[in-house]
Amino acid sequence: MSSLPFFCDESMLPPPGADVVLGMSGGVDSSTTCAILQSNGCIVNGVFLKLFDAKSVDKAEQDAKNVGTHLGVHVETIDYSEQFNEFVIKPFVEAYCEGETPLPCALCNYHIKFDAFCGYAKKIGAKFVATGHYAQKKQIRGVPALCPAEDKGRDQSYFMFGISSQQLEMAVFPLGRAVKSDVRAHAKERNIFVSQKPDSQDICFLSEYNGCYATFIRHFLKNSPNCQWKIEPGPILDAHGNKVGEHEGAIHYTIGQRRGLGISAEHPLYVFKIENNNVHVGPLSQLAVKKVFVKNCNYHLLATTELGLEGNNPTRVLTQYRSAMPPIPATFQSVAHDEAVVIFDDPQNGVSPGQAEVFRAADGTVLGGGWIVRTE
To answer: Measured between alpha carbons, how far is 355 from 30 in angstroms, rounded to an integer?
Structure first.
């Protein structure tokens, strides 16, 4: 049995002899996670999720199975394409057609990955589910808490706000204290052939479309004749409602966009609203948002006390509306069972309906999050 890498210790892992379901994507992160679990004496049950038909998916599946063969782990393929289409693809297309900016990776973690992995674990009697995500799980005041990875540049906890407390209870994140170069080095040490495999740069289902979401959406709609969503030309309006141009489809625009508007103006223009197939542009000041309204909130166990949910009291939090931004101070208030209002200390630019608003404690612990429905 090999020793654990320096960035991982036994406290982060299930005990030796434990059955663990591991999501294996064919990439270096999940492959290295497999080796780490084995090093700790865990019994690894690999799962590859087939989410859609594409050459890239077939290649990833083969890589996952080849890694499994190299490490002596069986990798089971589970077809989750129907669920993926229903809970990720369709909401993605709908959001863009409705003028929103979707976040498919968060939807996938919530509706697909952890649902599938935890379901399979219960089926075979395993108590643990491991993934190659860069995040940490800690015990805080006696309950499991989702915390950011040590490598803040790769932290993926923002995308996992939607997993349930039960799923978090089962979750294991062996790479939570790692940096990518060390992960690759450990994979090379274990002779894992994907140690230098490039990271995925795009949303997975856009890989066959050169990462172009608009091309994907047009293809989806073309092959869905009964779909209610359409792409139609429409006006581009200035901040006063005057028509200043035409667009070929609102899906080509996102909140905060400056380039590619096709409009000549004395000053820079930004998209600040997309509504009813109208694209609204204006100066940077039009982007400033002070308040966001959030729905379909998911709260982790610490949220009841940390967010003042019991009395619907205004509470100070750190919050993010994009994964790449640092958390910023704001005031949170629950207004219903799964709805909330967030008021930023300072106005923010580029906040878009469809994105996730994630709530964190002062130390970065994820308390929950929801989906932005409108701004003010």
So the answer is: 27
Per CATH, which fold does 234-286 belong to?
SH3 type barrels. (2.30.30)
Q: Note whether 294 and 371 are within 8 A (CB).
A: yes
Query: How confident is the model over 3-61, as pLDDT tens digits?
Result: 899 999 999 999 999 999 999 999 999 999 999 999 999 999 999 999 999 999 999 99
Choose which CATH entry (2.40.240.50, 3.40.1390.10, 1.10.730.10, 2.40.30.10) describes domain 288-375: 2.40.30.10
Tokens in use for 123?
Answer: 């089926």
Topology at the third CATH level for domain 10-206: Rossmann fold (3.40.50)
Least confident of 144-153, 196-205, 236-245, 360-369: 196-205
The full set of domain ranges for the chain reads 10-206, 234-286, 288-375
204 is catalytic: yes
Our answer to whether residue 297 is catalytic in this structure is no
Among the options 8, 42, 105, 108, which is catalytic? 108
